[in-house]
């Protein structure tokens, strides 16, 4: 998406709000805290600032690279020596931003080099961002930095364009040279998110999904509660979580969810784990290519 000047200002405001929620979580995370409470705290902070979550806030630990989202009753707690990926986004009127950071909960800094590899790769990628740069060239540079630090990039996760009510748009920004098509253009807004791991460099689905996205309207069915469908539709196709709807009756909600999944109109996003169950470090920013070069709007 290439925003108008007015839209760009909205993106910038949403980016600042997302960065504030990310920083708050990174400063307040500690062993013993519930994952759910940190996620809900980020979302509350976003709402209090006048925005809404671009997607459910997530805190993926250790070998889970992404998409760990707590259920409304999740009692999982952070533990000492965890490597945590804090993933959060904010939108205003559908103009979405996306950002994240990794936090080392060990006392000896055992994950610091992996986190640094992802962070350095992100900095190197941002420095390359200008019109007409091929996304595969950015991916190659990301992979070089991560491999130079002694780790492997994750090949089947990418950065992505951002738009109006659109969290994953073109172009995809890979983490290695993978023959990805596309190039950057002036005015683009997108997220770059390098993943570094000591494992095989690929992720796979594993676990119960708590993130969903309504892709189109369902066929009429007596198994779909109209009030619940209306509540889901309020998110305009952005990803949602069960915990967003804790105020609704549980049985009708779950029945509606099952029917939407059965009809193929509701996508599920289970946790993504590293293929050899090795730890993963990561960092993400939203970037705008302006007349003066790349602007990180989630700084």
TL;DR?
This protein has 299 residues and is α+β, with helices and mostly antiparallel strands.
Number of helices: 6
What is the overall silhouette?
globular
CATH superfamily of the largest domain: Creatinase/methionine aminopeptidase superfamily
Largest sheet report: 5 strands, antiparallel
Quickly give the CATH architecture of the largest domain: Alpha-Beta Complex
Strand order of the largest sheet: 10-9-11-19-20
Keywords, separated by commas or semicolons:
Arc Repressor Mutant, subunit A; 6 helices; 3-stranded antiparallel β-sheet; Creatine Amidinohydrolase; globular; 299 residues; single chain; 5-stranded antiparallel β-sheet; 2 domains; alpha+beta
Question: Can you tell me about this structure?
Answer:
The protein is built from six helices and 20 strands. With 299 residues, it is an alpha+beta fold. It has two domains: 222 residues, Alpha-Beta Complex (Creatine Amidinohydrolase); 59 residues, Arc Repressor Mutant, subunit A (Orthogonal Bundle). The protein has a five-stranded antiparallel β-sheet. A three-stranded antiparallel β-sheet has the order 1-5-6. Strands 2-4-7 form a three-stranded antiparallel β-sheet. α1 runs antiparallel to α2 and α3 packs antiparallel against α4. The longest helix is centred in the N-terminal third of the chain and has 24 residues. It is globular, with a radius of gyration of 19 Å. The model has no long low-confidence stretch (mean pLDDT 97).
């Amino acid at each position: 998406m290439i925003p108008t000047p007015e839209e760009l200002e909205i993106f910038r405001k949403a980016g600042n709000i997302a960065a504030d929620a990310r920083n708050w979580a990174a400063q307040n995370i500690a062993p013993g805290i519930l994952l759910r409470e940190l996620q809900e705290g980020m979302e509350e902070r976003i709402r209090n600032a006048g925005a809404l979550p671009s997607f459910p806030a997530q805190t993926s630990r250790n070998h889970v690279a992404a998409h760990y989202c707590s259920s409304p009753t999740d009692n999982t707690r952070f533990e000492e020596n965890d490597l945590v990926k804090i993933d959060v986004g904010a939108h205003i009127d559908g103009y979405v931003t996306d950002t994240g950071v990794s936090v080392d909960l060990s006392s000896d800094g055992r994950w610091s080099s992996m986190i640094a590899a992802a962070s350095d790769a992100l900095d190197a990628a941002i420095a390359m961002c200008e019109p007409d740069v091929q996304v595969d060239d950015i991916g190659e540079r990301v992979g070089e930095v991560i491999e130079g630090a002694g780790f492997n990039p994750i090949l089947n996760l990418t950065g992505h364009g951002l738009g109006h009510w659109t969290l994953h748009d073109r172009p995809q920004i890979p983490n290695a040279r993978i023959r990805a098509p596309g190039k950057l253009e002036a005015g683009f807004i997108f997220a770059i998110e390098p993943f570094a791991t000591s494992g095989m460099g690929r992720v796979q689905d594993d676990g119960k999904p708590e993130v969903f996205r309504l892709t189109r309207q369902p066929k009429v069915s007596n198994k779909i509660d109209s009030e619940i469908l209306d509540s889901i539709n309020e998110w305009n196709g952005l990803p949602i979580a069960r915990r967003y709807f804790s105020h609704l009756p549980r049985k009708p909600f779950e029945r509606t969810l099952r029917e939407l999944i059965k009809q193929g109109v509701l996508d599920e996003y289970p946790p993504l784990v590293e293929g050899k169950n090795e730890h993963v470090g990561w960092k993400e920013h939203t970037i705008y290519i302006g007349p003066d070069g790349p602007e990180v709007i989630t700084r």
